Amino acid sequence: MEPILEIEAVSLQFGGVKALDDVTYHIEKGEIFSLIGPNGAGKTSMLNCISGLYQPTSGSIRYKGQEIVNKKPYHRTTLGIARAFQNIALFAHMSVLDNLKLGRHTLMNSGAISGGMYVGKAANEEIEHRKKVEEVIEFLELQDIRHTPVGTLPYGLQKRVEVGRALALGPELILLDEPMAGMNNSEKDLMARFILDMHEVMDITVVLIEHDLGIVMNLSDHIAVLDFGKRIGFGTPEEIQKNPDVIRAYIGEETVI
Amino acid sequence: MRNLFVRESGNYKTSYSDDMKLFGTTGAKVKALLIVLIVLTLPLFVSNYWIGLFTLCAIASVGAIGLNILTGLTGQISIGVGAFLGVGGYTSAILTSTYGISFWIALPIAGIVTALIGGLFGIPSLRLKGLYLAIATLAAQVIILFVISRWDSLTGGTAGMVLNRPTIGEFSLSTNTGYYYLCAIILLLTVLYATNLIRTRTGRAFLAVRDRDIAAQIMGINLFQYKVMAFAISSFFVGIAGALLAHYTMIVSPELYNFHVSIEYLAMILIGGLGSVFGSILGAVFITLLPVSLSSVIDMLAAFAPDLYQLLSAFKDFVFGAVIIIFLIFEPGGLAHIWLNIKKYFKLWPFSY
Ligand SMILES: Nc1ncnc2c1ncn2[C@@H]1O[C@H](COP(=O)(O)OP(=O)(O)OP(=O)(O)O)[C@@H](O)[C@H]1O
Ligand SMILES: [Mg+2]
């Protein structure tokens, strides 16, 4: 297996806080990869470095062999990297459909002139991409709420739309920051099934941040563990469960693997 | 069988293109047609004076829709609209009066020149947001007016310039009615453009930039590009409005484009409804007709109490300010929102409760 993403010696500093400290790992193409660690360990900061919202103080991030550490966030999206946020960052006034269509922004072409006239290409494009968006709607079972303004939806559904918006890009790599946070068990199971399907049916490489270790151990091919910005473990679920540093970090948090 | 007396209630659309049509239902089609018909036959029913006022309303609507694309859709407040109207007006004045170029060529060029200058003054939006950006657009207002009033050889300085009404072949649009039709048609095109823009890729991106700029970047939106683009598109329509206004009043001079005009346009979109095309028109009509109706009320009162005339005239500015504040406090959604509520009320009528 070739790596799709290589994180090499990435450090990120905020004033005196080392959010990431010399972190190295890689993610293989087509796998489900989990990033775990206690609160404040630097997981979200890691995703921000990958999607370009934070600039690492030092280190290298390669996507499919290409250095992306200096690329702008919107450029990384065009490369096929999608992201669902931990704190839902949907466009609350827009419908589910429009949120998902925004997910396809980089795949569409119409501009201010053709779009404003809504003739020929621009009109066809809206319809053609609507079809793609409907595939995501069907996949995530959002049919009943496609025209609903996202802000009025319950939390669990908003989380699902957040994932849907990332999926709408048709990404090669999807970054999911706690997509199951705050969900009950049956909602979590459903989301876990969606993640498995993304991986198996759609062939997307998934990076998952999740605090429920049971789910993480079940879903993941590989796991990296962060603690105070340092990588304290990296390997298969079996290896992680045996890793004394990881056990210590988690027992410190009074969680048992 | 369709019952004409029953409104459609379910969702019967069977294809995506149906679902996405601008005038999806028969009702919407009839309504759109009716509005167009009223606008076009209006000159048959009202006096020349009112045609003049409606022309001003149409011109203000084009400018207000332009400003709403920037402020309502993209969330960037501009208080430089007055100066951009001036850029449009002066461009057309210089092209037609100094160089003898046809109005029909000068009008789009006025839009394009204003778009370019608007885009240029939009560059600070890369670093500035909200109030800070607003102050930067105030700088645009000051700089542009300074250039206009000092560049005598090009603009005629503080004296301004004189323009003519356009002609189509032999037919002159110098009558109020002729010019009204021109402005009404341009407003119609502006409405269609803006409505389509909002429901396609660029408009969605504008809204995304306004609501959540970080998420917008992750959607692959180049913030800088879209912010500057919003300035340019918005200024294009403001420039067109400026040119139309200049050929209507047949004069351009620096004091016609001062800060007060910028505030009036902001008031239009605030009162009409931020981000709403229809609201822009309502707001433009409201602000254009407000001083006229206030004046007639004052004239009426003055007939009974002549001493009050001075006092009441000073009152006009007060009422203008008060109306804006009242809207900001009680109906932030603007006239467009009030209109929506009225429609909702009648949809359920007579079971409104
Ligand atoms: N923009 C920022 N400015 C300053 N400090 C920051 C910033 N972003 C993150 N940090 C700090 O970096 C550290 C890591 O935060 P991060 O959000 O990455 O943790 P996390 O692992 O995602 O935690 P959680 O599980 O609670 O989501 C924290 O100490 C946080 O306070
Ligand atoms: Mg986090």
Automatic annotation (TrEMBL), chain A:
InterPro entries the record matches: AAA+_ATPase, ABC_AA/LPS_Transport, ABC_transporter-like_ATP-bd, BCA_ABC_TP_C, P-loop_NTPase
Question: Which CDD domains does the annotation name?
Answer: ABC_Mj1267_LivG_branched
Keywords carried by this UniProt record? ATP-binding, Nucleotide-binding, Transport
One GO term in the molecular function aspect is: ATP hydrolysis activity
Signal peptide positions (record): none
Q: Which domain of life is it from?
A: Bacteria
Give all residue intervals belonging to the ABC transporter domain: 5-253
The record's listing under PROSITE patterns reads: ABC_TRANSPORTER_2 (PS50893)
GO CC terms of this entry: plasma membrane
Q: Where are the annotated coiled coils located?
A: none
Annotated protein name in UniProt: ABC transporter ATP-binding protein
**What organism, scientifically named, is this protein from?**
Psychrobacillus soli
Upper classification of the source organism reads: Bacteria, Bacillati, Bacillota, Bacilli, Bacillales
UniProtKB/TrEMBL annotation, chain B:
Pfam families attached to this UniProt entry: BPD_transp_2
Q: Which UniProt keywords apply?
A: Cell membrane, Membrane, Transmembrane, Transmembrane helix
Q: Which is a Gene Ontology cellular component entry for this protein?
A: plasma membrane
Q: Which segments does the entry list as coiled coil? A: none
- For this protein, the parts annotated as crossing the membrane are 21-43, 49-70, 77-95, 101-123, 130-151, 179-198, 228-251, 257-278, 318-340
Name the predominant localization. Answer: membrane
Query: What InterPro entries does its record include?
Result: ABC_transp_permease, LivM-like
Compartment(s)? Cell membrane
Record GO terms (molecular function): branched-chain amino acid transmembrane transporter activity
Topological relation to the membrane, as annotated: Multi-pass membrane protein
Q: What is this protein called?
A: Branched-chain amino acid ABC transporter permease
Which species is this record about?
Psychrobacillus soli
